[in-house]
Design goal:
With 157 residues, the chain is an alpha+beta fold. Helices cover 22% and strands 33% of the residues. The strands form 2 sheets. A 6-stranded antiparallel sheet has the order 1-2-5-6-7-4. The chain has a two-stranded antiparallel sheet with strand order 3-8.
Length: 157
Amino acid sequence: MSRSTPGERVFRQSRVVRFADVDAAGIVYYPRLLDYCHLAFEDFFEHAGDRPYSYWIQDERLGFPTVHLDVDFLRPVEYGCPLTVTARVERIGTRSVTFRFEGVLGDGGVAFRAEVTKVCVGMDTGRSQEIPPELRDLFATHLVAGADARSAPEPRA
């Protein structure tokens, strides 16, 4: 289930951890948690906006590859566990956007936090470009309260 509440500035995606996501110890293999973040990023476009991520890649020929990750793993995530991944926009630059993701367990505890910076790239050129106004507006609706839309230097891509 995915949802975004207007004015709340949080996009949420809930799931139950599947057997295919865990390792022999019965906990989610850490790269899979980053995949959960990316899945929430993709679904954000359709559920928080009005067009799926595939539209931007296939029709508009824009992508958002990750150029920087900062992740803290705080608690194990086990098979069968309910998990909600939240997404907020931390920073909007001219050519990049930084999302803050949290993995929240069924008991309310935070399992992981990830700050992920993505650069807007033309799919045909492979070069960074300005974020289109429509996407800038979408990102701005989920900007963390108090965050600056242009508070940090742009990453190079």
